[in-house]
Amino acid sequence: MSYNKEVDNMKYLNIILLLISFNVSAQEWISDDNFDNKINEKQAFGDDQNKPVIVEFYAKFNDANKFEQWSELKDVIYYRADIATCPTAKKKYKVRMAPTLIIFKDGIKETVFKAGLDLMLPVDLNEIQEAVDEVNTASQF
Asked: What pTM, to 2 d.p., does this model score?
């Protein structure tokens, strides 16, 4: 194999790996335009039940305190909503602090976790996962 062909193959491999890693780690942002559709989203055909949806209301000024472990949550769909692009949803769900996490099931607000006056979320990954598990368990009945 020639040197140029090896270099081309490596370029393609790097591009594929970059695309795969982007898709795995990409955070999906939602806005007022698609907020209701996302919290009412139905899963693929054949699933017995829909997964709950967590929306993190985020503020750029408090980026240091955003929820970082979203990729570790199981059996849930996770979105981030910038309060600057979601004024309607922010008002509807009475979001006063960022970050605020809201767990929805079939479009219905189930659980809310709000930042305190220190602008830090007062729960950890385990507590959030427990809330998700409770919502999933409750929806089975």
From this structure: 0.78
Decide: 100 and 114 in contact? Cβ < 8 Å: yes
Quote the number of domains for the chain.
Answer: 1
20 inside domain: no
Q: Does residue 13 form part of some domain?
A: no
**HEC profile for the chain?**
CCHHHHHHHHHHHHHHHHHHHHHHHCCCEECCCCHHHHHCCCCCCCCCCCCCEEEEEECHHHHHHCCCCHHHCCCCEEEEEECCCCHHHHHHCCCCCCCEEEEEECCEEEEEEECCCCCCCCCCHHHHHHHHHHHHHHCCC
Q: Which CATH number belongs to the domain containing residue 65 in this structure? A: 3.40.30.10
Per-residue pLDDT tens over the stretch 112-123 = 999 999 999 999
CA distance 53 to 109: 9
Does 55 map to a domain?
Answer: yes
CA atoms within 13 A on the CB side of 24: 7
